[in-house]
Write a structure and sequence with these properties.
single chain; alpha/beta; 6-stranded parallel sheet; two-stranded antiparallel sheet; 13 helices; 8 strands; about 15% strand; globular; glycosyltransferase; WecB/TagA/CpsF family glycosyltransferase; transferase; WecG_TagA_CpsF
Length: about 240
């Protein structure tokens, strides 16, 4: 699928993975929709970049995405070391901006993923804030075969402009890549645990930790089982300072 020519969008590399820098991601994506094109949005951080080194299918999914935003502080640091002007763009904030844009422009939004009841609670929170928001559908991520078939039929029939998929990495990236053909003019975005935050099941890191790029420590406190995955961070840092190929 060809990329829209937008002057302020620049594609760079972190290792062999693309990262797109843009002054206004929501507008860029809105331009895609206005021209009849959809997009697969990936939010990349250091952990994901290292995971892609070990998982060629994840690396392929990232490289084939239409927009890859610098979600993690490590990715921002990597690019700044190489002289790029870049700011961190958390995926949860871009998704929120897109929902607001959807409410303003009349887009339909589909919420898919998370534990039973979580996506529905998140959608309800957004509808309370924006009564004009058009929710095309809500479905949790623990599907029976019948529910899975119905979900795919709904997406193909309704063609919602924005499809938010909260299945975690890499499952959400694989799922979008496999099913994007059902609604090719939609924005498909993997949003990890954003439904949990929006629904109040979990809290996002305090703003101070966000500002000093230590939001990952808050996630580790809330989800201590992640410690093994966090071992990727020092490996990423070492690669960042030694790999200039």
């Amino acid at each position: 699928m060809p990329l829209v020519s937008v002057p302020d969008r620049q594609r760079h590399k972190v290792f062999q993975l693309p990262v797109d820098l843009c002054a206004d991601y929501p507008t860029w994506l809105g331009d895609r929709l206005s021209q009849g094109q959809g997009a697969h949005v990936v939010t990349i951080n250091a952990e994901m970049a290292m995971q892609a080194e070990q998982d060629p299918e994840l690396g392929r999914a990232i490289r084939e995405a239409d927009l890859v935003i610098p979600d993690g502080a490590g990715v921002v640091w990597y690019l700044r070391l190489r002289g790029k002007k870049v700011r961190r763009s958390p995926g949860i904030e871009l998704a929120a901006d897109l929902i607001r844009q959807a409410a303003d422009l009349g887009w339909q939004v589909f919420f898919f993923g998370g534990a039973p009841g979580v996506a529905a609670a998140a959608a309800q929170v957004w509808q309370q804030q924006y009564p004009n928001l058009r929710v095309a559908g809500v479905q949790h991520g623990f599907l029976s075969d019948e529910e899975r078939s119905q979900l795919l039929r709904d997406l193909e029939t309704q063609q919602p402009q924005l499809i938010l998929v909260g299945l975690g990495v890499p499952r959400q990236e694989f799922w979008i890549r496999e099913h994007r053909h059902l609604s090719p003019q939609s924005i498909w975005m993997g949003i990890g645990g954003s439904f949990d935050v929006w629904s109040g099941q979990k809290q996002r890191a305090p703003r101070l930790l966000q500002q000093i790029n230590l939001e990952w420590t808050w996630r580790l406190i809330q989800e201590p089982w992640r410690w093994r995955r966090m071992l990727a961070l020092p490996r990423f840092a070492w690669r960042a300072v030694t790999d200039w190929s």
